[in-house]
Structure formats: C-alpha cells, structure tokens
Design a protein that fits this description.
alpha+beta, globular, about 650 residues, five-stranded antiparallel beta sheet
Amino acid sequence: MTYRKKLIEVALPLEAINQESAREKSIRHGHPSTLHLWWARRPLAACRAVLFASLVDDPSSHPDKFPTEEEQEKERQRLHDLIGRIENVETKGKSTQTVRGLVSWSDITNTSVVEEAQREIARCLAWEKGDEPPTKPEKVTEYLSKHAPPIYDPFCGGGSIPLEAQRLGLEAHGSDINPVAVLITKALIEIPPKFANLPPVNPDSRKNSLKTKTWYGAQGLAEDVRYYGQWMREQAFKRIGHLYPKVNLSQEYGDAKATVIAWLWARTVKCPNPACGCQMPLVRSFELSTKKGKEAWVEPIINRSQQPPVVSFQVKSGKGEPLNETVNRKGAICICCNTPMPLDYVRTEGKAGQMGAQLMAIVGEGERGRLYLSPTNKDEQIVTSVKPEWKPEANLPHNPRDFKTPNYGMRTFAELFTPRQLVALNTFCELVSEAREKILSDAVAFEIPDDSLPLCEGGKGATAYADAVATYLAIAVDRLSDRNSTICSWDTGRDSTRNTFARQAIPMTWDFAEANPLSESTGNFIGAVDWIAKVIEISPCSTQGFVQRIDATKSDIYAKSIVVSTDPPYYDNIGYADLSEFFYVWLRRSLSLIYPDLFSTILIPDKERELVATPYRFGGSKQKAKEFFETGLGETFKGSIPLF
C-alpha cells in the first residue's frame, strides 16, 4: 500500500487554530472543561484540527486529481479554510476578528460544519480503497464506522482527544492510569452515546413534555441530571439547612433576613509575646470589596480590658484605610502588640495543633448586591458545634512542591475542610446513592427494561441508566468540594469565592471563604449541577466511546489497527495523581459501589507507576526521575502504528 502524506505533515492554518485555542479559556457554559476540573487540558480546537489533519490526505498525495502545484495549493487552502479561517466582522463600526470553521467552538454546533469535516475524512479513506466517496451524511457516518481507524489516546486525562475523535465520527478509545481521569472521560465519551435520544425518566418530564417534545442526543440524560440534582438539594436542605441559617439585617434593611453567601474566616495562632498572648489573626487582606462605590473592609477591634487581649471584627464600608496584612511570605505580626515573628513559629504552632480560626465577616445576598455584615458568637458556634460522622482521614501526598498545608499541621484531607463543610459534603455523597435508587425506580416505572446489569459491566437498561445519572451527580459533589474547602479565598474584585485549585497546587491560605452550598451564589450545589448538565446536553453522541484504566506502558491495544493521538504527561510539571486525590476521596465515597474497579482503594492506586518525572518519588534524584519518565514513554510507544 502506498503511503499518502497527510495534511498535518505539510501545513496547518496555525493562526486560526491558536486564536481559537486561546479563546476557549473564556468559553464557559457547555464547554467540556467545565464538567470536572483537570489540569493542563488540551484545547479542543487544537485536538480537533490535529485529528482532522492527521486523517485527511495532503493534495500532493493525489497527483492524479491535483496534477499541478497551483491546483494542490488551491485544494490545500480549501481544507485550511474548512479547519479554520479568520474573518473580519463589523459590529457598531468596529472591526473584530472571528475564527470560523471546524476549530470554532461556535461553529461546531452547526451540524453542517462537522458533517463537512467527516465527509472529507471519508473521501480520503474511499480514495485509498478505490471506492466512490460517500456524500450524504448518513452514508458518510456508515462509511466511517466501517472503514475509519479507531483513535486511541493512552494518556487521556480530561478526555479532550477522544471527545474530538468522537465528534468527527470516529471510534474513540482512551485510557489512563488515574481513576479520576478515567471517570471524567467516561462521563464525556462513554456514557452519553449509550443513552442517546432517550427521553428523561423523571416524573415531571414524563407528565409535562413527553407527548410533545423530542429529545435529541443526551438532552434527556441532562434533564434527569438537573431534576435529580434539584431533588438532592431539597433533601440536603431538610437535613442540614439549619447549619446555614439566614442572617438578621438591621433597621437600615427593614429588619429583614438575608441568605448568607459566604462566611469569611481568619486562621489564628497564639502570640509568642508573654506580655500579650492573644489569639492573633493571620490575615492576607482585610478588604472585602474593592468595587467602586461598594467598598467594604474588616476592622479589628482589640479589647485590652482582659488578659490576654481579645480581637473581634467589625465590618466597615465606604471610603477608608483597611489595616495592612498581618502575614506574608516573610512572617507574621501581632495586631495587638506589633510583635513580629517568622513563619517557622506559625508552622510550629500549626504542627502542634494550636492553629485555630476566627470568623471575620459574613457575606449576605441583598436586593442590590452583596451585604457585608459583622459576625456574632452565634454564627461561629454553629460551625464549632458540628460533628461530621465521617471524614477523609487519609494523609495528603508527600509532595512538598505542590502541597503546602502539611507545613502548618494540616496533614490530612479532612483538615482542608471546616466541620460544616465535611457534614455538607458527606450529606451530598450519601444523597447520590439515594438519588440512584430513586432514578432506578422511576426508570422501571417508565418501562425501561431492567436487566440488573450495572453500567460498569456494559449494561444499558434501567440499572445502568441509574448508575449513569448518579455518576454525574457525584461529579457535581466533586465540583462542590472544589468550592467548599478552607483553601478557598474571597475575591474582592468579583465579590465571590475563588475555588480550591486556583492553580495546580494546594497552597496555604490564611483568610478563607466558606461558601453556602444551599445558596444560589458561587459555590452552591445546583450551580454545579447546571454546569454539568450543559456539557451533557451538547455531547456529540455520534459514535460509541471506550475508556479503561490501564498502564500505558503495558497496553496491548497497539496490536490493533489504530491511530494513536496523545499529549503525554508534562514531565515534572504536574503531579496529576497527587492533585486528583483531593477529588478521589469524595468520588470514592459516592461511587465505590458503581465503579468498584476504579475506587477500590482508599487513595489513588499505582501512583508509583504514574508517568511523571517527580524527583521526590526517587529520593530527590532528578536523574532517576528523568530516566523513569523517558523509559516509560519509550515503553508506551514501542510498536505503535501510526503515531500522530
């Protein structure tokens, strides 16, 4: 067989691909990256372009059809325009550049763009076989299913490459040694096609719309995720709503009550000055809001009438000068006696279990925006009186570069959360299982056949469907955990809670924000469910996807006729397994019965086989880490055919 040079080997419209890849960072609702956090995701635009150009022949490979260089260049340009072209758009007298074509996130919702790309792939396959290329969409789909090579990503991570292979009508395969990565990719490419074009099973949808509405793709699945997510929220409110009481407002606000969005805390240690000894707050910033006209800050009030002095907090608004930080990378200072101290002292106190937390302010939801209120003893007592029935007591990874909290005595996953946060996350984890039973009952009542075969064993009936919806609900709990830990901080410019993983590490935070998961603001459970449902309802569902947890260096999948397309792990840049254990402990709590093979161990298994060059796993030896990484990559791709 004569090898035909592919388009990717000659030229690509890089400017359009790069521009759209950069724009993806600002695309939110519905984008697959919002399903579940994963580190260093590849831009979907780049994945789509690379896969397409890896399967489509360069015109120079067909001199019989494009005999001159001019004709070849013209055809090449046509293919480039299909992949991505930059157009100038006039809006209100201003000219802006917009990317159109296959790499455009806006254009792939247009089925004709994706169909055109699939037709080009089918045409090249047909030319190779001497067949007449199919032209009608259904014939193209049929031809691709019979003749297109499957796509395999041995390091699938967040699932970008398998997802885009699926979008192009190709059989998609992915694998990863990390169970969290495998679950994310399953949720993207394996589950939606299994239940494509099915209506939802929840009673409200059956009663209100089944007679008149047609459900396409995974829309029905998304609708059920929303419905049972709302049911979980309602049940959670009944059980733990008392832990999130509304706050009483002053006469200025008509003596009303407001829903609390967040409680803002400061960590504390005892001042080492014997003449002082106060519980000194460690605060990065006393500012609450820097929005123009809505400025607010916390002012410490020192009661020196008792010994040791007692610090309380009062919220101020308008123009003013907030106190400077009391802790930074160099050390800390006591606001009562101005005694400076090195961070080593703070670390020692933390490791001795002497670090506490004090409530600084409460953020409420007002009719005209955020309300910043001074805390009361009652607000603090609610949290200190809570006793979680279960907590993730496993130790944090020994990864000094990415995990800073063990330096301050926070050594376990449980210590990254307040007691109230632990109770809330536990409650939602338990409700995932209860929701699954409810979904199963409703699915059977809807007359979906129940073969009792679970999703993990290839089931497609009522039991498997209940497992599928429960998977997404558990992912919503994961999203909730990212917004509900003591690593979350308050964003004074946006008046909202930052998530735990603002970067690919778990740093030490001093003043932290505890969000209200039962509110309607950032960090709430229904918001997490809605983000997920938006991803599900626009899933490609065009072909079936397959994902498994395997060690890429020992995979035998290369024995098949398959195209390998991957973005390998980033050397020593990202400790994927260490970071993802933050989510694993909660997924295991929710899904260990649904995915026993993925969540059978307390923490992520086979971490020592993860293909990253992390010196701390090799006694600090960079050379041994380098050799492990490079040898593993060689083993992974040994005998692979062909590789892009």
